[in-house]
Amino acid sequence: MPSFRRAASATPSRRVRPLRPAVAAVALATVLTACGSSASPSSSPKEATHVVATAHGKVTVPTRPLRIVSVHTWTTESLFDLGLKPVGVEDSGASYVPPRYLKGWKSAPKVTTGADIDYEKIAALKPDLIVGVDVPYLSKAYQRLSAIAPTAFAAFDEKADWAAYPAETARFTGRTAQLGALKQKFDNRLTAVREKYGSRLSHSDWDVVQGGFDTGNYWIYGPASPVGDILGRLGVRFGSASASVHGGAVKSVSYERADLLKDADYVVYYTNNDGSPANKIGKLFALDTFKRLPSAKNHRLIGTADFLPGSYQDALGVIDSVEQALKAS
Q1: Residue 47 has what pLDDT?
Q2: How do residues 268-323 score in pLDDT, each as one tens digit?
Q3: Cα 322 to the chain's mean position, in Å?
Q4: CA nearest neighbour of 232 among 163, 278, 177
């Protein structure tokens, strides 16, 4: 499934300058000292580090990292969920950051915009751990990042369960207990909403869409997409448009094919963090053919800034959006 917050996040960036000698020295010193940065005076180096499996093999990381740089939005959001404050984060664009993370995200230095990675800035932050997701552009950057500090990337799989990414972030940072509490909160919310609205969820049809980056097309998401997975756990019945999308893929269709959503009682779509339609989905909503659809006429369009969940609080945000819509309809 494409995990674009915006088109630029997937595009190649300008060439990055090599590290200057002084910065390279800082990077080397960071690598040499990172493992012991969280140790107390009485701790041994062995007690201060542990080995984790990552997308690039086994990596020795601090047991309790203090200065974490995150180069992917999913790890950034999970760090905040786990009570950690990264010293550097990716720049996914402020309008795409869910409101609950916006204050923390704004206060952290930005070290990468998609494939455009500022290695010198990362080195200057003296991280003792770098975390991210092994999407193609970050996989290519792994060696240079790991020369600055221990680098742990979660394996990327378009068909992977969204919950795999917070689980990996917690494992890399030694926060599995905090992850367990988040998971329990999520499970409890699922149960509560299913019990209250189960009949309405399972006896109405739900489609999931996003404004696409293809010229003149929007995207239909299926049950195996991250947001589809959360809706499925709530017990929704998918409309024919979303039900026709298999695996974690999306179907790119012309904006003129609003009729594909004709049997949907509810349409879930992606919003910016101010609630406005994200990307170009407004083009679909403006069409007369769309306005005549049951979901539009009955005001059952459900926008959520958590459309591309990569953390448990994101997933809870999707549930909140669904519950609010059901209360209002």
Answers
A1: 53
A2: 999 999 999 999 899 999 999 999 999 999 999 999 999 999 899 999 999 999 99
A3: 19
A4: 163
pLDDT digit string, tens, across residues 130-152: 999 999 999 999 999 999 999 99
- Are the C-beta atoms of residues 9 and 104 closer than 8 Å to each other? no
- Alpha-carbon torsion (156, 158, 161, 166), positive or negative: positive
Q: What is the pTM of this model?
A: 0.82
What is the rounded distance in angstroms from the CA atom of residue 95 to the CA atom of residue 102? 9
Angle at which helix 164-173 crosses helix 176-202, to 10 degrees, equals: 170
Closest CA relative to residue 306, chosen from 235, 216, 208: 208
Which string of DSSP letters, residue by residue, matches 16-56?
PPPPPHHHHHHHHHHHHHHTTTT--TT--HHHHEEEEEETT
Domains located in the chain, CATH noted: 7-174 (3.40.50.1980), 181-328 (3.40.50.1980)
Q: What is the mean pLDDT for each group of 10 consecutive residues in the chain (329 residues)? A: 42 31 38 39 58 98 97 97 97 91 97 95 98 97 98 88 95 97 97 96 96 88 94 97 91 95 97 92 94 96 94 97 93
Tell me the H-state helices in 82-225: 99-107, 119-124, 136-146, 164-173, 176-202
Q: Which two tokens stand for residue 265?
A: 């009682």
181/130 Cα distance (integer angstroms)? 24
Tell me the two tokens of residue 138: 């970050």
Contact criterion met (CB below 8 Å) for 221 and 253: no
Rounded to an integer, what distance in angstroms lies between the CA atom of residue 143 and that of residue 245?
36
